[in-house]
Each structure stands twice: as structure tokens, then as C-alpha cells.
Amino acid sequence: MYAAGNKVIHPAYGAGTIVDVTEKHIGEQQCTYYVIELLTQDGTLMVPVTRARELGLRPPVEQPEYVLKVLTSEPSLLSNDHRKRQELIGADIRSGNVLKISEDVRDLAYRDKTARLTEADHELYRRAQDFLAGELALSQDIDMATAQSQVRSVLEAIKIDEEPV
């Protein structure tokens, strides 16, 4: 169970901090909720305590350096079929799997430097970068702007020497 002050990642909404654990009456039932102040979006999110695990609520990654290492690793070639590519990347983002999202950011960064990204690709790229930055901000106890800058710096350093695997 989490408590107020805990940092968490919601797979669909990203990084946040639990600001309260509150009881709500819905009909005749009383439910306990985590109230999460979101880092990457305005507003708060209420997650039922009994469904937190099922919904994928988790603490931030413990080894942020591993995320940065994935960003600098050898990219994989993305599908040339934009619909297939966007479907796969969108599913990875919705999963909240930080390693998959890191790989997608890396691969989109490579594609952005070597081929044209569609408008939808750019939106997925932005969303994935924001998710990673939120994760890094919480795990390193830094602000969002610093984490975004950290991600951008790593991505800008990607070299285009050879074809990805």
C-alpha cells in the first residue's frame, strides 16, 4: 500500500505523487482512493486502492541510468507502415513499460534523423518523451524541465553511422 508523499507511475497518465489517501462514498459503498497529483499533466487522478495493482500503479524505476543506457543503445528499425508502427508504439506507451517506451523513443529519434516522421509519429514521440521525463524526474528527484532536458541531450547525441538492427 502506498501513502501520501509516495511517488508513483500510472501506465496511462504517467508520473505523479500521492497527495492523499481518501475515503469516498459511492452509493452505499465506501471506497478508499489514492489521490495523485500528476507531474506531466494538469490535475489530479483518483485510483481505487483495491485496483491499484490491477491498473498498473507502480513506483518509479529504481535505476534511471538503465533508461538512459537504453536510449543510447543500438536502435531497431521501425516498420515503414505508419499505421502498424503507430499502433505498436501507442500500445507500448499505454502499457507504461518504461523499457519498451525507452526503446520506442530511441527508435523514433533515429527515424527522425534518417527518415520523415508523420505528424502522428511526432505526437507519439512527444508523449513517450514526456512519459520518460516524468519517470526520470521522480526517480532522480529532479524537476520535470531538468528531466526533459536530460532526455533531449541524450537523444541529440545519437550518432547516425550505420543501419539499425
Structure characterization notes:
This protein is α+β, with helices and mostly antiparallel strands and about 160 residues long. It folds into two domains: about 5-55, Thrombin, subunit H (Beta Barrel), CATH 2.40.10.170; about 65-155, Up-down Bundle (Methane Monooxygenase Hydroxylase, Chain G, domain 1). It contains six helices and four strands, in the order ββββαααααα. It has helices at about 50-55, 65-70, 80-95, 100-115, 120-140, 145-155, and strands at about 5-10, 15-25, 30-40, 45-50. A four-stranded antiparallel beta sheet has the order 1-2-3-4. α3 (about 80-95) packs parallel to α5, α4 packs across α5 and α5 crosses α6 (about 145-155). The termini are far apart. The mean pLDDT is about 90.
- What's the name of the CATH homologous superfamily of the largest domain? CarD-like, C-terminal domain
Rg over C-alpha atoms, rounded to the nearest angstrom = 17 Å
In the sheet with the most strands, the strands line up as 1-2-3-4
Mean pLDDT: 92
Overall geometric form: elongated
Q: Tell me about the biggest sheet? A: 4 strands, antiparallel
Under CATH, the topology of the largest domain can be stated as Methane Monooxygenase Hydroxylase, Chain G, domain 1
| CATH domain class name of the largest domain | Mainly Alpha
How many discrete structural domains? Answer: 2
Q: What is the string of helix and strand elements?
A: EEEEHHHHHH
Unreliable stretches: none
Percentage of helical residues?
40-55%
CATH architecture heading of the largest domain: Up-down Bundle
- The secondary structure category is alpha+beta
CA-to-CA gap between the ends?
41 Å
Number of strands: 4
Strand-residue proportion: 15-25%
Q: Please tally the helical runs, counting DSSP H or I stretches of 4 or more residues.
A: 6
